[in-house]
Specification:
This protein has about 625 residues and is mainly beta. About 10% of the residues lie in helices and about 40% in strands. β22 (about 350-355) and β23 form a beta hairpin. The protein has eight helices and 42 strands. The protein has four domains: about 5-130, NAD(P)-binding Rossmann-like Domain (Rossmann fold), CATH 3.40.50; about 145-260, Hypothetical Protein Tm1070, Chain: A (Sandwich), CATH 2.60.290; about 265-365; about 375-625, no CATH class.
Length: about 625
């Protein structure tokens, strides 16, 4: 497992990780390592505790004589280079060079110059710094806004293309002249193209299409990954996007997924085993400039100890297709699979291939820091049903809606669950206790068994048969067209929705301190792939306002508002929204490629799922995200 620190719920993201994992920093680290190997033995001064991550993400640095620290409490503690040594001993080190693991080399050199061994050169991590023109906050290098970065699965090959869509949400916080630095890696990890792209101010849209990129740079067919670095941002260091995969040249495939959650994790979950007639491919995309060794990653049936190792080396930035059936040949849907990734990849994608169609979805981060929380089973009455995981029930005459609860924390041994169903007006339509499910369960409930109408359902905790909960309840939801064979799937987690009281950070989506729940959701346009739509759900753990006061605003590609409409959704109800019906086909056409709808509500938190529907029945569907 890579010795890197990436993200935790208390401290948030580790900016140092993003600074070292940036492709330009990785190139500079490779050059620095070559210089150190040529110079001879090196002593490392580690004033900020950076070196373990530098060593993990970089090539061999040559002979490291020792690691030196100034904190007396750390002297003698284990490090990647043996027990830590006192900085006062540095002068006697038999080395040719001293490497200070810091991005502030000038200041550090001035402070320890008298401790350098005779004749030793002084080097630092300054050589790894991005150029000033790529920094948002130049006076503080390890500022989170300097590393608003992410990865995207990107393909233009064999009748399948991809399109990344977002908007300049940083402009809401005062950002001007935002631009993107982009690097496309091919399947072999080699750089196919590097370019920059300006982003229009005032909410202008972002559209990066694989066909356009391929034509612009004269590229051959490719399947790889796109690295995105947003520069000049404000307020938000996360790069959010929706990613369409669509068929060309007679291929009718259509699917949508979303941003890659830019932090590597130990484990990922909600990888489905193949159903009859399906082939499931896990796309492993190395996020770093160091190889993934054979056996460093593995797959296992959820809840089982036996691991099937991925016995191939995956080079720097390479993309590899791993057939699930090759690793776990005896598993079939509805069995679930866990990926142990060794922190080598950001959230991976998987592809389900069936009947000449393909759909792309993502795995979710499995939490290592969570433990069961006894307080969830004893929440005060003010929290009502507590944690809810809402999802649409599509028209049962046309679609199957299948839900599969997924363990999403390493400590989850049981899932005590019930499903509650509601129609669009918020009236209960059905309920089913699912039991106290074990970690290795294979339940996949087809809601058609409940005979419920179109609307939405909510997974909730139900402790009648015991069990534990941690609030990190997730599920995979699969939607299948009854005619035509098309399908889509999505996964997300539970929250407490729309209560005035709070519990350990729930409910979320506050504008300022609680109370004051709000909604801001992004609905991308159809962009020539079909009719955009979304299912907006008004989930309520306890009684809240009887109706939402939702405002939907259609924006064109420059971010200009061109139409607006109001909508009231009943508490515990839902609504299907079709922009071409709500605003008119002419207005949607005027919005153009990259046009989008912002969904705003200052009275409650809504949750939504978006996609594209074609007249012939093909569709995509995934959960929405907000800015």
């Amino acid at each position: 497992m890579l010795d890197i620190r990436t993200y935790d719920a208390q401290a948030g993201g580790n900016v140092l990780y993003k600074a070292l994992a940036h492709p330009l920093a990785a190139e500079a680290l490779s050059a620095l390592a070559a210089e150190l190997r040529a110079l001879g033995p090196v002593a490392v001064y580690d004033p900020e505790g950076m070196f373990a991550m530098v060593r993990a993400l970089g090539p061999d640095l040559g002979v490291v004589e020792g690691l030196y620290v100034h904190d007396a409490a750390l002297v003698g503690q284990p490090t990647p280079c043996g027990p830590a040594r006192a900085l006062t001993d540095l002068a006697g080190a038999p080395v040719a060079v001293v490497l200070a693991a810091t991005f502030d080399g000038g200041r550090i050199h001035d402070r320890i110059a008298h401790l350098l061994p005779p004749g030793a050169r002084f080097l630092s991590m300054d050589a790894l710094r991005l150029p000033d023109r790529m920094l948002t906050v130049r006076e503080r290098y390890l500022d989170r806004l300097n590393f608003a970065t992410n990865h995207a699965f990107f393909r233009d090959q064999e009748g399948l293309s991809t399109r990344l869509v977002s908007a300049n949400y940083w402009s809401r916080y005062g950002a001007r002249a935002v631009r993107l630095w982009l690097r496309l890696f091919g399947a072999d990890g080699k750089v196919l193209a590097t370019w920059e792209q300006d982003v229009a101010d005032d909410g202008g849209s972002i559209v990066i299409d694989s066909q356009a990129v391929r034509a612009r740079f004269g590229l051959p067919a490719f399947t790889g990954q796109l690295f995105v670095h947003a520069i000049g941002v404000a307020g938000h260091d996360v790069v959010k996007y929706a990613l369409d995969t669509y068929g060309t040249d007679g291929n009718h495939s259509l699917s949508v997924t979303h941003d890659a959650n830019a932090w590597p994790s130990d484990r990922y979950a909600n990888l489905p085993a193949p159903d009859v007639g399906e082939d499931v491919v896990l796309w492993v995309q190395n996020s770093h400039a160091v190889p993934i060794p054979p056996g460093a990653m593995s797959l296992n049936r959820m809840g089982e100890a036996h691991h099937a190792s991925i016995m191939r080396e995956i080079g720097p930035y390479q993309t590899a297709a791993i057939r699930v059936a090759d690793c776990l040949p005896d598993l079939a849907w509805p069995a679930q699979i866990e990926l142990r990734s060794g922190r080598h990849v950001v959230r991976p994608r998987y592809e389900v291939i069936s009947a000449h169609r393909t759909r792309i979805a993502h795995l979710n981060v499995e939490r290592a820091d969570l433990r069961p929380d006894p307080g969830i089973a004893n929440l005060p009455e003010s929290f009502g049903r507590g944690f809810l995981l809402p999802f649409p029930i599509l028209d049962p005459a046309r679609f199957l809606t299948i839900v599969q609860p997924v363990p999403m924390a390493e400590s989850q041994a049981t899932l005590p669950l019930r499903v509650d169903c509601f129609d669009g007006a918020g009236n209960p339509t059905g309920q089913k206790f699912l039991g106290c499910l074990p970690r290795d369960h294979d339940l996949a409930l087809d809601l058609a068994q409940l005979g419920v109408p179109e609307g939405h359902a909510e997974l909730v905790y139900d402790f009648r048969d015991g069990g534990d909960a941690d609030g990190w309840l997730h599920a995979l939801v699969r939607f299948q067209a009854r005619d035509g064979g098309h399908a889509a799937e999505t996964s997300f987690g539970a929250h407490i929705f729309n209560t005035v009281m709070t519990y350990r950070g729930e409910p979320q989506s506050y504008s300022g301190p609680p109370p004051g729940l709000t909604t801001r959701l992004f609905l991308k346009g159809g962009n020539g792939l079909g009719h955009a739509f979304c299912c907006l759900i008004y989930p309520a753990s306890a009684d809240w306002r009887p109706h939402s006061r939702t405002v939907l605003t259609l924006h064109d590609q420059a971010g200009r508002a061109i139409a607006e409409s109001g909508l009231e959704i009943a508490c515990s109800g839902s609504a299907m929204v079709w922009p071409h019906r709500l605003f008119g086909a002419e207005a949607v056409e005027q919005a153009g490629l990259g046009g989008y709808v912002m969904i705003r509500d200052t009275t409650c938190r809504l949750f939504g799922y978006h996609g594209v529907m074609r007249d012939e029945g093909g569709f995509s569907l995934d959960h929405m995200f907000g800015f």
